[in-house]
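Morning, I've got a small favour to ask if you have a moment. I've been staring at a protein lately and its backbone has me curious. You're getting the sequence in one-letter code plus the fold written as tokens. I've dropped the whole record in just underneath, so have a look:
=====
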Amino acid sequence: MQQESVPGLCDLLRACRDRRGLSQEAVAARAPSGLTVETVRNIERGRTWPRRHTLDQLMRALEVDAEERDALVAAWVIRAASATGPRPPRATPVPAPTGVGLSLRPLVGRDQAEAEVVGLLQSENIRLVTLTGPGGVGKTSLALRVAATVAEEYPDGVVLVDLSPIRDAELVPASIAKAMALVQEGTRPLLDLVEDHLAERQLLLVLDNFEHLLDAAGVVSQLCVACPGVRALVTSRMALRLRNEQVYPVVPLAYPVPGETLAVEALSHVPSVALFVQRAQARRPDFTLTPANSAGIALLCARLDGLPLAIELAAARLNVLPSVDLLARMAPSLNVLGEGPRDLPERQRTMRDVIAWSYGLLPQDKQALFRHLSVFARDCTLAAVLSVCADQADGGDARPGLAGDEMLGSLSLLVDANLLQVVEPVAEGGADGSRGPGPSRTAAADMGVTGRGFGANEARGADEILFRQMQTVRAFALEELEASGEASTVHRRHAAYYLRLAEAASGALAGPDQAVWLERLEMEHDNLRVALDWARSSGETALGLSLSGALWPFWQRHGHLTEGRRWIESFLTADGAREAPPEVQAAALTGAAWLANDQDDFGPAEERFQEALPLYMELGQSGHLAGALVHRALRARWQGDYHQAAELGEGGLALARYAGDSVATAFALSRLGVVLRERGEFKAAGDAYDEALERYRAFGDQSGAAFALLGLGDIARDQGHAAVLEAYCSESLAQCRELGRSWGIGFSLNNLALGAAMRGDFGQAQALQVEALALFRRTGTRGGVVELLVNSGQVANDRGDYAQGLVLLRDGVEIGWPVGPQWLVATGLEEMARVIVAEGDPRTAALIMGAVQAWRGRMGAPVPPFRWETVDGTLAAAQDALGEDGFTAARKEGAELLPKDAIVVAIGSTNHNARKRRDY
């Protein structure tokens, strides 16, 4: 969607309303089905895009005339028409949410709560339910149980988003997008991608642990308004305070009344006692509730106010203390409840004391480990724990802790005390593929690390055991860490570890292990964010620049473009940035430039490259200088100046060769191949791609090799060789699917669609294009959307469906102008002229073809051979209808048109013809 299209419709609707002197309230009241004032307001402000039936209701309420109706419908069609045809594939329905494992044990004492929350979600008028309550009360467990219960009612399944690892409210859309495998690859906001993805879907969105991100509550509200088939189930210690929110307080489990004596049988059915017994038996299978221990356990559950997590922590101690001693040991801690912070709920103070009691039972060195583990965002590997928490000097800074060879036993003790969780991998193991619980010394040996450096195995995290502190436990541990005075030292070690990880990954992303390193960085993204946030808040600008400068290739390849730019720019503009080492500044400036470039934000990209140039020269980084030249070549190509693009690309290649930088040379060759192909220099382009492919394969860069294969497929496509095209692009597609590179998947599918069309298989061509277009829309790849719309319009024309062709072509031209790629806009205009002449308007078609021919000449981008027959056919049809003189005059007049004027002529002609068809 072109950004200007939405304000156009908004302005038209406001103008219609103002001409009639109506308020938004009056329009809502006059609408046939009673639109809300909020909906009218959001549409006029561009926050919500109306469906067609909503637009019809608004037009009836406004009593628009024929001219106003045409203008409104035309503005709506520019945005909505490209969504016609088969809808994107639905998300695969799942029986229960994924992302946080479901407990295999029964959920004790929550049957009524489950039924009530299910009923709320099934209510016609409730779209948002928030489960509130103190930490440890069981909000997440109840949400997961409810989600599993209602999953079959949602055709597109359940999406679970665990928000506990993030601290920045601006990252909430990114977390939701990640949960749905949506990747940003352009300037389009992630929330827009999420809205488009969910607009036609029916699913349950579970947002877990929202209490620290209340500034993002508007995101939830916006999704509920924009996506009518979506319902949200949120867990939060506090309500979101949204108008349409239904709050459901999750209360602690019922517990025995102190002083009241119950028989053992009756006591066993009290939910808090039943949970205690269940968790105790998980530790001691022989444990039973007896007349001897029942009174003590009843009093214990009452003192814990029925909080599930507190009960679980207490039950975990039965393996070392009898229940009577357990109660006695807890009593002193519980007696000081009234001295807790007055602004915390009483049960939350109780919870803290329970954790404090468990913490107090640990030996001093284990307490230190418990505190230090809180610096990790969520999950951490054994290697990370060894590096950050083991007792070893770091730059002469010794600190208390555990020696590396004691670590496994200490971790096991924390796991046994329910102060740490083990997250088991899905990996090969025994006959049933399982592994035993808890860490092992073999796992440490398999890591191949000592906590100081990284080997190749460090990227391979899929079969590693991970450790995790529950969020309530982690909050307590963070408090203790701050109180201990160790926070700065441990955070520094955490940041240093993740800097080493990022630097190791950055050096490997051009090699054969790139896929596993990218996967590892994605897995560690929350911890990397913690390190970046600490560097920013503590004024460690040089460290932040180093870390963000090492991470930008990951952010680029995995589509975290906006977030990556935010991090890098925050350090580049921070105090002390200019005092950082030149190589650190250069890396960060390079990352900022390329991420901006990938969002088509060419001005800021050029500024950052310009800032980096003197640093490159000072450091002798000729490869980076070559990259800056290639960037400029790509920008010139995007904007239609192929003469400058070729000159800059060849200069960048020469510099890379001179520097002996194989990676920079391969990159320059592959991008120069794009420019040369679009100039029609197929032999030179093929040579460039062949050499790039050879180099990429030599150092194991699968992503680069896939790009070169795709380029060779582009040449075969432009020359009309369908079999060669399909051979290259099938291989490129397979590699891109393996790597998860959405740009390559989309463009490979596009080429394969065009190959199918060349063979006359239009059904296969359309199916492939629908898949590719949905992918590019989901990831926000604007250039990919333009290419798919134009090519899909061409294929629709080839099969004789001119109406559908025009819908797609108009949208492609609107989105592609003026940002680019301009050669695709020229192709779209040629295809529109093809339809215009077929519909009986040869003069307009000749005007457009004359304008495009002159424009292509100025760009230096000729019509590729596989389109010669189509272009010649359009010209011949116009000439036959106009005669030689009329045709020549029209083409000459068209050659004087600027591209923007030719676009206006083409769209105006197609709108006029559409009105004529409708009137007829």
About this structure: The longest strand covers residues 230-236.
